[in-house]
């Protein structure tokens, strides 16, 4: 019997923790949004991820970002090489 009470106490503490952090409120709002959708989403999990901000970018977007990153790295390295080849400007002594 004591085991059940300890388990209930832990569960209650966990729920209070979730409530304190606003998790329950956020999940409730997203659930209501899902309920109010005229067309129910085919994947409730994807719907929740999207509305909770856990959406990952599409593969095409990832590929584009990788290409942009590679281009920037090349430009950076070219600039570094160019700066190394330039003779240092010497201060004029009076």
Automatic annotation (TrEMBL):
Keywords: Nucleus. It is found in: Nucleus. One of its GO terms (molecular function) is transcription coactivator activity. Gene3D superfamilies: 6.10.250.1060. One of its GO terms (cellular component) is nucleus. Its main location: nucleus. It comes from the Eukaryota. Belongs to the AMY1 family. PANTHER family: ASSOCIATE OF C-MYC AMY-1, C-MYC-BINDING PROTEIN. This is c-Myc-binding protein-like. The gene is LOC101576719.
